[in-house]
Amino acid sequence: MFRGTYTALVTPFRDGAIDVSAFEKLVDAQINAGITGLVAIGTTGESPTLSHAERAEVIRLTMKFARGRCQVLAGTGSYATSEAVAATVAAEKMGVDGALIVAPYYNKPSQEGLFRHFQAIAQATKLPIMLYNIPGRCGVDITAPTVERLAAASGNFRAIKEASGSVARVSELRARLPDAFTILSGDDGLTLPFMAAGAVGVVSVASNLLPAEICAMVQAFRSGDVVAAQQWHLRLAGLFNDLFLEPNPVPVKTALAWRGQMSSEVRLPLCEMTNENAARLRATLEAFERESGLPAPALSGSVASSAPNE
Fold it and tell me: Residue 137 above 50 pLDDT?
């Protein structure tokens, strides 16, 4: 069910509030570029700093602006099982196509605790679930045996966004899981090697900025044109790196602001990029646009204009 390119949407802000107009334009740009699906209120969308009402509003707006033209998933994970259940049930009532559920963070449950957490959510909803494994941020790893156990326990579990950074993990998952259970890269820079090991797409941060290009890379590999996919990967590699010079989504919002698509505003405890890192990112983006041979919007503004309340 979950195959292709999914954008983990940023949440545009303007003077502390959700910038609805910028968000609509972002969603339209993604769909017009051929994106498979959109993920609302993942961590790229700064979900930890959104109120419950704002999270519901972002999901509602994503559904409204998408108008059924692509899949929409809602990020409904939490370190509290009861809260994750409530958020997933609420998202289901709003009509989303699936839920992206990150491993509980900070409290570091055991594998048995992880199994019970995800199983409790699956028992409360009919939504297809994409697990999200990112041990570097959550402090806990959803191991391959636990994913296998979850897939056997409930048909709700359809996919995993794997952000462990390990190609070997993708290979292990692919060997353990049924073909219908899909694996997607959770790291832009590892999309190609992960697909070579059995993944079928990506949940991307970079596609906020370059949706057509990320779609082209994924589709090239899926259609068997490995050379074209590799060319895209190599062309994008510098950006894959520099979009994570500072905590996500600060760099990608900064780049989107240079293109005039939204403010670079983020919420504390995130803050604007340093001038040094912003200059490096800008140089990488400008070099990509010069060398890609593809039409791209001209960058506007200065490095200094990446301050959060520009």
Answer: yes
Q: Does the reported pTM lie above 0.85?
A: yes
300: confidence class by pLDDT, cuts 50, 70, 90: low
Helix boundaries (H) for the chain = 20-32, 52-66, 81-93, 111-124, 135-138, 144-153, 167-176, 191-196, 211-222, 226-242, 250-258, 275-291
**DSSP one-letter string for 154-186:** -TTEEEEEE-S--HHHHHHHHHHS-TTSEEEES
Query: Would you give the DSSP letter of residue 187?
Result: S
> Which pLDDT does position 291 carry in this prediction?
84
Q: Would you put residue 296 in left (φ > 0), alpha (ψ -120 to 50) or beta?
A: beta
Q: Per the structure block, which two tokens stand in for 296?
A: 């791209």
Mean pLDDT of the chain: 94
DSSP, res 45: G
Known catalytic residues? 132, 161
- Homologous superfamily of 4-223 in CATH? Aldolase class I (3.20.20.70)
Residue 118's identity, in one-letter code, is: F
From CA 181, how far away is CA 155, in angstroms rounded? 9
Residues near 285 by Cβ (< 8 Å), separated by ≥ 6? 239, 242, 255, 258, 299
pLDDT in tens, 84-98: 999 999 999 999 999
